Inverse folding.
């Protein structure tokens, strides 16, 4: 009888510790997951707020050199911007331009610096156009110009 | 039974303390950084709103090629770094030299662009480091 009481107490103890351990594990895992997600989200929002750029060309006078129109992209944010075909998407008059049809003069621009975006002349016809340049974290700028 | 409950509560409390310390050590610094970025973003927006420039005079040297001197006035309330400016003449970006490192509110500076060859109506665009721009056509 004495043993059975001790035994049942032991079973209760092990069960209680096991359940508490599982609850504690789940709680820790959820907190860690939530913490990581929040930190990542904060980091992305921070990057988005720090990144900004602007097309600064003279809209009525776009330089054309060796079959490429040149657009000047100025970094007006607080963070270096990676300027590649992978980080930037280009839309002209609402149509997405193939990544083979444009490239940048440099792979990155520091704050206040300017990169040149070369767009194949064959992509643009005579007349007025609207360019939308979408950069990292979907930061974008629109620019209306005349060819 | 009493000891089992105590042990279970102790384990859960330890886990809670661990979770709280995790939040304090990982999430709070991120939120603090985000807050700093937001303040910087806010400051940047205010600075942009308060930045204004004017092209007050344009002169050129004689002969060809010639130098163009662009006099710019800070008509806003923000001090601007002149090395952050961009100068576009007739659609093309040009290197320049400047008389001062800073353009204080109400003051004037001269930007000199060398080696130009085209005279006549000249479209001049001056862009500050924070993207505020001024475009004017001057006869050179």
């Amino acid at each position: 009888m004495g043993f059975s009481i001790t035994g049942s107490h032991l079973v209760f103890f092990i069960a209680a510790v096991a359940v508490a351990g599982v609850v504690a594990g789940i709680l820790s895992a959820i907190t860690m997951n939530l913490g990581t997600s929040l930190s990542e989200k904060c980091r992305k929002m921070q990057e988005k707020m720090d990144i900004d750029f602007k097309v600064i060309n003279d809209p009525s006078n776009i330089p054309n050199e060796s079959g490429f129109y040149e657009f000047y992209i100025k970094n007006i944010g607080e963070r270096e911007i990676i300027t590649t075909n992978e980080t930037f998407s280009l839309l002209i008059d609402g149509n997405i331009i193939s990544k083979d049809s444009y490239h940048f003069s440099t792979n990155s621009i520091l704050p206040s610096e300017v990169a040149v975006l070369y767009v194949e002349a064959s992509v643009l016809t005579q007349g007025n156009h609207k360019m939308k340049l979408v950069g990292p974290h979907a930061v974008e700028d629109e620019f209306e110009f005349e060819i | 039974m009493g000891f089992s409950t105590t042990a279970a509560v102790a384990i859960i409390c330890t886990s809670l303390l661990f979770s709280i310390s995790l939040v304090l050590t990982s999430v709070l610094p991120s939120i603090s950084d985000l807050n700093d970025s937001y303040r910087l973003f806010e400051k940047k927006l205010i600075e942009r709103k308060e930045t204004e420039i004017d092209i007050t005079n344009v002169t050129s040297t004689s002969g060809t090629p010639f130098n163009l001197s662009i006099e710019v006035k800070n008509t806003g309330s923000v001090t601007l770094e002149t090395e952050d400016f961009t100068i576009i003449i007739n659609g093309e970006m040009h290197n320049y030299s400047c008389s001062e490192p800073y353009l204080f509110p109400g003051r004037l500076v001269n930007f000199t662009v060398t080696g130009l060859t085209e005279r006549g109506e000249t479209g001049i665009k001056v862009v500050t480091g924070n993207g505020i721009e001024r475009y004017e056509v001057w006869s050179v």
